[in-house]
Amino acid sequence: ASETEPSVGDLLREADQVRTSDLARFDALLHDLDALAESATAIERERVRLLQAHRLITRGRSEEAVVVLRDVIAEPAGAANKFLAGSMLANTHAITRRFELALHALDAMLAGQSDVEDKDILHRGLLVAAIVYNQVGEFRLGLHYAERVLDDTPLGRSRCAAENLVHEARNGLKERVDVARAMESVQVCEAEREPILAGFSRTYVAEMLAEDGKLEDAVALLEGYLSVVERAGYPLLIGQYHAMLAEHRMKLGDIEAAEQHARHAVSSTSSLASALPLVVAYRTLYEVAEHRQDPELALATYRLYAQADKAHFNDVKSREMAYQVVRHQTQQQAQQIELLNERNTVLELQQRVTEQRAQNTGLIVMLLVVLLASIGFWAYRTKRVQMRLRRMAEVDMLTGIGNRHHFTQRAERALAQCARAGEDAVLVMFDLDHFKLINDRFGHAAGDCALRHVAAACVPLCRPVDCFGRLGGEEFGILLPGCDLATGRRLAEDCIARFAEIHTADCGHVFEVTASFGVTNSAVSGYDLTRMLSHADRALYRAKRGGRNRVCVFETSLDAVALSLASAAMPTGDGADPDAAGVDAWKQGVAVG
Ligand SMILES: Nc1nc2c(ncn2[C@@H]2O[C@H](COP(=O)(O)OP(=O)(O)OP(=O)(O)O)[C@@H](O)[C@H]2O)c(=O)[nH]1
């Protein structure tokens, strides 16, 4: 059964075809479509609504139709439906002579034309545009839209309608209508069974014939078709045929026929107070009365002619005015939109400026951060270099303890502090025993290794306030501020004990490391470092002489001999410490010996 049953699409197509020609069938189809609403798509259901609106229009219920059409335009299921609804709305307003509304509807409809793919629907809209623009006297626009339809070389009814609209527009523009083309469109319209449109096409041909002085031909053409036009039953067209015939007959001197046609024209268009045929008909009747020298009738018909002419003129002007009003409104709207757009642009620019400013601030902050980071980095690098340089200047690279220069500085400061505080300070000085032998036997690297062991063994015995340094070669010094002689001696003995525990296997050879110690304190030697060093050195020398690997405390009675011997052997320089100079000379003598 489903194979024979027509689909919603089929029914829609048929309803569309018969909507103007067969109202009974159209109603039946709408009824069927209503029943099939469930199986229809949203677009199809909407198309049914548009057909229902069409039925309302044909029954004179245009107000209700307008509500439906506006509804579809506001929320369409598809672009084509929106366009179709727009064209129907414009047409409805034009039929009810609300040209401003019609023009607004057209503007809205034409804005969506590029979205319409269905050519038939597009042509329907463009034809409505041509009709409305011709009606409001904008024949250029009428011509444009009618020709756009013809550009697509449409068939049948669309071509017939478009051709007629082209002729109407050219006529309105006072341009010549192409007679051959008008005759061709007559045939197209007749083939489409559109007697009214074919009839209008003939009026354009007749007009051109009359313009060329071929009045008889024009009359023959119009009269030959008059019965067909009368059967078609469109009052305006019937009126126009009779009015034209009346005018031409009058010119040909056929007064009786002219009067008859004029009266027919009046009777068929009497309900259309502003129709042009009425004007022509009354004018002919007036001319007939004049011709018959009937002043009373002439005056009466002239009055009617003047009235009809005024009504027609007013009608034309009001339609033209509608166009101007709408254009003005549209322009105003466009200006308002432009104004708003400009305002938006200003706001956008302002926002961009604000953003740019924020961006710039961010950039500056970033630059500052980068700058601070690099300054910080360079400060850190410089500090590190400084620290390295300082360490290099203060530390003995072989043993890692303070060098002689640093030892001297720290020890002098500590001694000055002890002097101020009236505290004792003790200096321990030691020299490795037979170090030359170690070097000679095991090599210089083994000697270096032994020096590192010795320094490392002493470090844990010193307090942070003690000054421990390598005075040169294999000679070391430890200054203990705030300590007495006994403490110094104990420290020296602890050192001896620790040296005895040194394992030199990691130096490549196993050998013993011992040292000889000389100790003095500030109570005996004073707070002068050079003097203390000198005294400690002398005690150390005694320790060497006494058999090495031992501690000797400076004693003036024992060590003064050496001092005076050294003083005598060594000439003293300007301001030189006699004690210190003596020790060095003496030492040199020992080394030589
Ligand atoms: N490996 C090494 N040897 C050094 C270093 N500084 C000095 N010497 C050596 O230490 C030796 C010191 O020898 P001397 O002053 O004769 O004294 P000694 O051999 O220790 O004998 P006494 O002091 O009398 O016990 C010299 O041979 C120097 O070359 C050093 O940094 N590394």
From TrEMBL:
CDD domains for the chain: GGDEF
Catalytic class of the enzyme: transferase
Domain GGDEF: 423-556
Entry's Gene Ontology molecular function annotations: diguanylate cyclase activity
Keywords assigned by UniProt, alphabetized: Membrane, Signal, Transmembrane, Transmembrane helix
InterPro entries: Diguanylate_Cyclase (IPR050469), GGDEF_dom (IPR000160), Nucleotide_cyclase (IPR029787), Rev_trsase/Diguanyl_cyclase (IPR043128), TPR-like_helical_dom_sf (IPR011990)
Cofactor requirement: Mg(2+)
Transmembrane segments: 361-380
Keyword check for 4Fe-4S: no
Pfam families in alphabetical order: GGDEF (PF00990)
EC numbers: 2.7.7.65
Protein name, per record: diguanylate cyclase
Catalytic activity: 2 GTP = 3',3'-c-di-GMP + 2 diphosphate
Gene3D superfamilies xrefs: 3.30.70.270, Tetratricopeptide repeat domain
